Each structure stands twice: as structure tokens, then as C-alpha cells.
Amino acid sequence: MKKWIIVGAVTVLLLGLVGSGYLLLSRSGADPSDEDFIGTASDVSGEPVEVELGTVSSVLVLDAIVRAESGEKVRARQGGTVTHLWLNDGASVDKGAPVVNVSLPAEGGAVEGEDGEEDAPATREVTLYAPASGTLSGLDDVLVGDVLEPGATVATVSSGKFQAVAQVPANDLYRFYDDPGEIMLKIDKGPPAAECEFIGLGAGNDSSSEGDDETGGGEGGGSELSCRVPSDLTVFDGVQGKLSVSTGEAENVIVIPVTAVRGNSESGEVIVIGDDGSEEVREISLGLSDGNFLEVTEGLSVGEKVMDPIPLDPRFDIPEEPMDEFDEEFDEDFEDPEIAEES
User: Fold this and answer.
1) d(CA 66, CA 16)
2) Whose CA is closest to 310, among 279, 288, 289, 285?
3) What are the residues whose beta carbons fall under 8 Å from the beta carbon of 96, sequence distance 6 or more?
4) Neighbouring residues of 11: CB distance < 8 A, sequence distance ≥ 6
5) Residue 317 pLDDT more than 70?
6) Are residues 222 and 176 located together in one domain of the fold?
7) Does residue 274 fall inside a structural domain?
8) How far apart are CA 298 and CA 267, in angstroms?
9) What are the b/e assignments for 244-258, b being 16+ CB within 10 Å?
10) Would residue 206 count as lying in a domain?
């Protein structure tokens, strides 16, 4: 039992020494100021680095999945009865080609016969045309004599084109300062990488399937980036790959390490080290980031020195409760039958 008392006393003493710096700063009842914290943290790990000119090329690599574009639909907007099929399912069509004829009641209504009785309602013939060039599908389900509801889809014209879709994590949206530049698509176990034409960046596109977990769509947050796969690249619906997205490049600009800045989008703060060793917390404006370096658009000059890495913001650097874990381990050890028997 005595050995546990000694171990506990030593542990408490060590923990007290570790926490003494924090207690000295905060025992007055107020949180430590930025200046107080900077003085202690910079002496431990940070060192001055010189501000220089450089190039920042921001590239984001994302997991992607290929999806076939949904195509355009041939709709019977007013409904009607199918009277003629011009083409078969799977046929190639040009935009404006006739696909199906349907009959509709004439606008004048029923026609009155010679004997004064109403004859069968007058009808008019309407032709439905292909809204785009491509391949027809869905006509196998349409027969002459079928009655179509208004707005019913008769067939679909597929373009045969594909899109690559990737989920952009919400925090990475800060890296998009404008529409992305070059986008390269690399299919897993597929052909060499090829350029993919940017389509859009948003909550989702009409051609994308909902809730696709394979691209991270089920995780929530973020946005969906889509690009059109080149027609000469052999792909299949559902194959996976990666997108390398260029979100910007800046040459001959002021750059500093990302670890020297608190905040890495639009604005942040650094600790500028003076020639006499003095430290100044300074607000700066930021531009591009490549994950290692940040472009500084305002607030710093070439030749100045900043602390790297910058100490954590004291408002968020709260010490953990070290005794909780020790207490749990102590309780588990004390409950051990062999230890309990020895004590």
C-alpha cells in the first residue's frame, strides 16, 4: 500500500510542475493575454523564418466516380393515344427526328352527324420529335394503342456522354477563389489521365444520383464538383478514379509557411519578430494556398521575419484534465485481485 502512496505523490508533483506555467498566468483570475502566451510558447518551439517571394500552385486531389449523363426525354406533354412508332429502341437519332405519333381530341370536340347524333370525337395527329442527337431508349415499353397521360415520358435520348463527379469537403471550398483551372481525371486501373472539362460546383447536378456514398455524398456538407469526360476516353458508368483540380496559381508573390499563420483563408494573423527580438501580433490578408505555403496579399514585406510555427491561440489552447486518465488507471489497478491482496 505504501508504494501506491509514493507513486501517487510523485505523479501529483510532476503534474503540478507541468501545469505550473498555466497556473502562473491565470491565477490572477483573468485568461492569459496573447502577449503572455506568445512569450512562453515561442521560447519552446517556434523560430523566426524570413518572408520571401515564391510561387503558390494550389492543387486539390479528390476521389471521383464516373456517371453516365441522364439524357433528354421525349415527352407527350398533352398525353394522347399512340398511333405510330417511327423508330425502334436503340436507334441512333438526330435532333428533330420524328419518334412517335399520338392522336389527340380535336379542339372543336365531337362532330355531329347527318342524323343529328354525335359521331366519334374528332382527333388530330401530333408528332413527337427527338430533343437532341443520341441513342433512343425506352421505346420497348411503348405500343400502338397505348394511352399516355399528359407529361408522360415516351423515350429518352442518351448522348453517350459521361461526367466525373467528386465531393469537395466543406473546408476545402476555401481553396476555390474562382472557377477551377485545369482538371485532370485518372481512372483507377484505367487509361492514362486526361483533361476533364469543368461543368459546375454546387449542391449537385441533375445527372448525379442521390446519396452516392462512394464519393462521400453521404457524409454531409461540402459541394459536388463535376466535369465532362472527354469522348475519346473509354469509361463505364460507375468506375472510380481521382480528379486533380487546379484552384489557382500565383507567381512571384510573398509567401510564408501555413504553420506560421493562424487562419488560412482571406485573413489571418502572424507574429512578426523585430530586429531587437520583439514580437508583434499582426493581421494579414491571404490569397492562395498549396497546403504548405500561403500567399500574403497585405500586411507583410519581403525580409521581415515571422514565428514558425505560431503558438496556438490561447483562447482555444485549454489544458486537458490529466488527472482523469490517471484516476481511471489507478482504479483499475486497485481493483486487480492480486494488487488488492498485496495491499
Assistant:
1) 57
2) 279
3) 129, 130
4) 326
5) no
6) yes
7) yes
8) 9
9) bbebbbbeebbbbeb
10) yes
- Largest pairwise CA distance in the chain: 121
Cell of 207: 445527372
Asked whether residue 291 is domain-assigned, the answer is yes
Based on the fold, state whether residues 153 and 257 are members of the same structural domain.
no
Q: Taking the C-alpha atoms of 195, 197, 201 and 204 in order, what is their torsion angle to the nearest 10 degrees?
A: -100
Q: Are residues 201 and 213 located together in one domain of the fold?
A: yes
Q: If you search the block for the grid coordinates 486497485, which residue do you land on?
A: 334
Collapsing DSSP states into helix, strand and coil, what is residue 315?
coil
Q: Which of 213, 260, 267, 263 is nearest to 240 (CA)?
A: 213
What type of residue is 103? Answer: S
Nearest-CA neighbor of 99 among 151, 147, 134, 149? 134
The pLDDT of residue 62 is 95
173 lies in the same domain as 290:
no
Which parts of 176-261 are beta strand (E)? 183-187, 194-195, 197-202, 223-228, 240-257
The structure's pTM equals 0.56
Q: pLDDT, tens digit, for every residue of 218-275?
A: 444 579 999 999 999 999 999 999 999 998 888 999 999 999 999 877 889 999 999 9
CA dist 158 and 176 (Å) reads 32
Count of structural domains, the chain: 3
Domain that holds residue 9: 2-56+250-322
Residue 217 identity (one-letter amino acid):
G
Distance CA(330)–CA(333), nearest Å, equals 5
Question: In 6-117, which ranges are E strands?
Answer: 47-50, 52-68, 72-76, 80-85, 92-93, 98-112
What is the helix (H) or strand (E) element at residue 35, kind and residue range?
Answer: helix 34-44
Closest by Cα among 306, 258, 254, 300 to 49: 306
**Do 126 and 8 belong together in one domain?**
no
